[in-house]
Design brief:
Layout (H helix, E strand, L loop, with lengths): L4 E4 L6 E4 L3 E2 L12 H13 L4 E3 L8 H10 L8 E6 L1 E5 L18 E5 L3 H15 L6 E5 L3 H4 L2 H24 L5 E6 L2 H8 L6 E5 L13 H8 L2 E5 L6 H4 L6 E2 L2 E2 L2 H16 L4 H10 L4 E5 L5 H12 L16 H4 L10 H7 L15 H8 L17 E5 L5 E5 L6 E4 L4 E7 L2 E8 L3 E2 L4
Parallel strand pairs: 3-4, 4-5, 5-8, 8-9, 9-10, 10-11, 11-14, 16-20
Antiparallel strand pairs: 1-2, 6-7, 12-13, 15-16, 17-18, 18-19
Helix pairs in contact: 3-5, 10-11
Length: about 450
């Protein structure tokens, strides 16, 4: 049973990611203990379902997930899958009288303590230990793990860890990639801001971003994801269900961001759920499909805790969402981003385009631009504006309906034309000599033809 794949080759050593990957934290007995037999059944079902990208980390069960995953993968040809693990933590056995780490989070795991080490030697030792636990001679991708505020607790502590990594661990990863020991490297974090900080200061291939580009959150669209696309950096999305709430729905006891979901999140999810029902879309399928519509995204890697969840993820990966229409919601952006405005000062998009030698045939009767959408549309034209406004000419109108639902209508005027590509994702416009301007936007809905 084959899954759709996406090829990535930034380093001359191509990798083929299945759009549905396998996040292995549940193999480390995250939140509940599972037996070796249950772990094996999870992996067998994932493999049978076509999954060929597997991600793990020393943190997951303090080595247990790597050990279980390695035993399973040993039975398959090494060239048949992509494997990533992480660096930044070193594990050691507990001393007499010490309590192990992860109590209350990881259950029935090895008695080990963790220590952060993002230095050169720490990265090399971490890789060596991971290969030993995996029982393999190589991994394809290494991510620097948890270089974020969520993990380190303060901006000052995070900045110290980032400096430690760039002075040592980054150099180690570059050497490992240049020597062909790994095919690519990056960082696996819970926030987009450290990803952007790192991307602006080094030659990174991939980022694993957990929970920050989902139906609930799209701040990464402002600057990080455009930067990744511009530089050819691949993105792997972890936590597409925001720790579960986008899969379970707004039920009491649902998790968001590794803890119980607050009422405000439950209320917002309830509204998203209603919108999905209106369009005949199951929310967990929409949540999985949403990040894949961004051109930089290579794979989405939920962490299934049961064979049933593996099967549900496969269903979500295969879901055919209604083409040519979509679900819009004021839940997807902040209120200030969604206020429709017809005009900002004397902004004249056509005039600015002409000044830059860009021909924009056709006319638009009116245009109400969502701030983020306008920014994505005009930057490829070389027009640097950061506000919403009224354009006098163009090839498509993008606006907001009274419910603040993001909508789009393609107008056809001579050579100018546009279309919405699938229910989610991008709009491509043919605008004279400047073709295929891609507007990467979530949840576009076509208005009825006039």
């Amino acid at each position: 049973m084959r899954l759709t794949t996406r090829d990535f080759d930034r380093t001359g050593r191509p990798l083929r990611f299945t759009e549905l990957g396998f996040g292995s934290s549940p193999l480390g007995n995250l939140y509940r203990a599972i037996s070796d037999e249950e772990a094996q059944a999870l992996l067998e079902r994932a493999w049978a379902g076509g999954i060929r990208y597997f991600d793990t980390a020393p943190l997951y069960g303090y080595g247990l997930a790597e050990e279980r995953l390695g035993r399973f993968l040993a039975g398959h040809p090494r060239s048949d899958y992509v494997l990533s693990t992480k660096v930044g933590r070193l594990l050691r056995p507990v001393e007499p009288g010490e309590a192990r780490d992860g109590l209350g989070k990881f259950f029935e795991v090895p008695e080990r303590k963790e220590r952060f080490d993002y230095g050169y030697d720490g990265v090399m030792r971490s890789l060596e230990a991971s290969l030993d636990r995996l029982g393999l001679d190589r991994v394809d991708v290494l991510y620097a793990h948890d270089l974020d505020l969520f993990t380190h607790g303060s901006q000052e502590a995070l900045e110290a860890r980032l400096a430690e990594f760039m002075a040592g661990g980054y150099r180690a990863l570059v050497e490992l990639r240049d020597q062909g020991v790994i095919s690519a490297f990056g960082a696996g974090v819970n926030e987009w801001q450290p990803c952007q900080w790192l991307a602006e200061r080094g030659e990174f291939d991939l980022f694993l971003l957990a929970g920050r580009y989902t139906l609930l959150e799209q701040e990464a669209l402002e600057s990080f994801l455009p930067l990744a696309e511009e530089r050819g950096i691949g993105i792997v999305i972890g936590g597409p269900y925001n720790s579960g709430v986008l899969a379970t729905g707004p039920k009491p006891g649902s998790f968001y961001d590794y803890r119980l979901a607050p009422q405000a999140v439950l209320d917002r999810v309830a509204q998203i759920h209603t919108i999905c029902e209106r369009w005949g879309v199951r929310m967990f399928e929409a949540a999985f499909q949403f990040p894949l519509r961004h051109p930089a995204v290579l794979s989405v890697i939920p962490g299934p805790q049961s064979v049933g969840e593996v099967m549900e993820n496969r269903i979500a990966a295969d879901a055919e969402l209604p083409p040519g229409r979509g679900v819009g919601s004021d839940l997807l952006f902040g209120d200030e981003d969604l206020q429709p405005v017809e005009r900002v000062g004397d902004l004249d998009l056509a005039g600015q385009a002409r000044a830059r030698g860009i021909r924009l045939p056709g006319e638009v009767e009116h245009i109400l631009f969502h701030r983020l959408l306008l920014r994505q549309l005009v930057r490829p034209c070389g027009i640097d504006i950061d506000v919403a406004g009224r354009a006098g000419a163009g090839a498509a109108a993008v606006g907001l309906d009274p419910r603040h639902t993001i909508v789009a209508r393609a107008f056809h005027h001579g050579q100018a034309g546009g279309h919405v590509d699938h229910m989610l994702g991008s709009v491509e416009f043919d605008i004279g000599d400047f073709r295929h301007l891609r507007l990467a936007v979530p949840w576009l809905a076509l208005l009825p033809e006039a």
